[in-house]
Amino acid sequence: MTLIAFTFFILAGAYLAGLIGSMTGLGGGFIVIPLLTLLLHVNIHYAVGASLISVIATSSGAGAAHVKDSLSNFRLPMFLEVSTTLGAIVGALYAALVPAHLIPVMIGAILIFSSVMSLRKKNDNPSKQVSKLGERLKLNGTYNNGSQVIPYKVRHITGGFIAMFFAGVISGLLGIGSGALKVFAMDTVMNIPFKVSTSTSSFMIGVTAAAGAVIYFQHGYIDPVIAVPVATGVVFGALTGAKLLTKINSPQILRLLFAIVVSLLAVQMIYNGLKAHH
Amino acid sequence: MDKFNKNNINQLIGGALRLGVFLSLIFMVAGGIGYLSSRSEEPAAFSAFRVSRLSFPAVFQGLLSFQSTAIINFGIMLLIATPVMRVVLALLSFVLAKDSLYTVITILVLLIILFSIISGHSS
Q1: B43: which DSSP letter?
Q2: B109 with A232: Cβ contact below 8 A
Q3: What is residue A83's three-state secondary structure?
Q4: Residues 6 or more apart from B57 whose CB is under 8 A from it?
Q5: Is residue B50 part of a domain?
Q6: Domain with A29 in it
Q7: What is the rounded CA–CA span in Å between residue A23 and residue B77?
Q8: B42: in domain
Q9: Three-state DSSP class for B41?
Q10: Is the separation of the CB atoms in A131 and A274 below 8 Å?
Q11: Among A98, A103, B50, B90, which has the highest number of CB atoms less than 10 A from its own CB?
């Protein structure tokens, strides 16, 4: 394939990835890795680098479109970012040591987990438990549900902090946003209501990815020729997706459809990774 | 104070993110067109990973001599810096609100990112 054809192929694929990523809320990097590795036979290290770039592009693009943070909503992501950024550094530094065939297997597993998570019932039961550490760190807050202002209390701060470190490692290791892991940790460990955990996660994804990306960049994982069509395609795809989403009546069916597609891609990645090993 | 946080900081963050994404895409696309204009018919060979280290000073040097890959890489650096701007603006809002605990926590996050830049360079 010539470079020009390769570039336009990625541009179209990344546009689709951005579109699907923003409509499902799964993020842009989602099908960038299978697209590059399965269809275009790009080396997994370059694919992972390009994916991290697409994660940063979508997270900043989404943030630019609708920032509704208030000061109290900065505290939770900032506190947890101490842990995710440290994790991302560990993951990015050790990415080179993981056997290349295992990376697609791990990514496949995370993709399946994330698509299942995107279909799951949302937790909306604010905890009544009081955490002293949470109070000292001023992590309890409120969120708006329509015209209602609902207070929530955060629990298991230490456990959540450790889970976030793990999410950071996965992000740095596999070049993904690991937004589903972050939401899962906030939801099940810290009992944070869904509205808060998703907005907190989208704040954190970009910063976590940036911490890993500065290492990837210097280690030559982010190839400029691949990064340009990936970043451009994903940003414009995400913009289209955000517009389309307001016009669609049943996003739930769409989510299910995409979850199936993503899971199939993931199974293919796991299969290829395991086959390469034997 | 609260009014300032809710409106101004959000507008500032939204604006910074838009500007960051916009500028980085401009540099990336400009560099990409420059790169492809001479190599469009070359075969795409990315199936093997070739280790090639990259340093920030080298990108700036290449940028001054209008190297297309350096222009792209500068765009990538801008893109990576964009979410960090969000942390910097959050720091500003914590300082303005005299929230010393979170001023320290936010500085810690920025130091970790700085540490990441250094560890990527030296490892």
Answers
A1: B
A2: no
A3: helix
A4: none
A5: no
A6: 3-277
A7: 27
A8: no
A9: coil
A10: no
A11: B90
Give the 3-state secondary structure of residue A150.
strand
CA–CA separation, A71 vs B79, rounded Å? 25
Q: Is residue B30 part of a domain?
A: yes
Sequence-separated contacts (24+) of A136-142 with Cβ below 8 Å: A137/A75, A137/A79, A137/B101, A138/A72, A138/A75, A138/B99, A138/B101, A138/B102, A139/A75, A139/A76, A139/A79, A141/A72, A141/A73, A141/A75, A141/A76, A141/A196, A142/A72
Q: Is residue B72 a part of any domain in this protein?
A: yes
Return per-residue pLDDT of chain A as tens, 278 residues. 899 999 999 999 999 988 887 777 666 666 788 889 888 999 989 999 999 999 999 888 776 666 555 555 788 999 999 999 999 999 999 988 888 888 889 988 988 888 887 777 666 665 666 788 888 888 888 877 777 888 888 888 999 999 999 999 999 999 988 888 888 888 888 888 877 887 788 788 999 999 999 999 999 999 999 999 999 999 999 888 877 877 776 667 777 877 788 788 888 888 888 887 66
Chain A within 8 Å of B17 (Cβ-Cβ)?
yes
Among residues 53-72 of chain B, which lie with CB inside 8 Å of chain A?
53-56, 69, 72
Q: Report how many domains make up chain A.
A: 1
Provide the ipTM.
0.91
CB contact, 8 Å: A50 with chain B?
no
For chain B, the 3-state helix, strand and coil shares in percent, each to the nearest 5, are: 80, 0, 20
| Total tally of structural domains belonging to chain B | 1
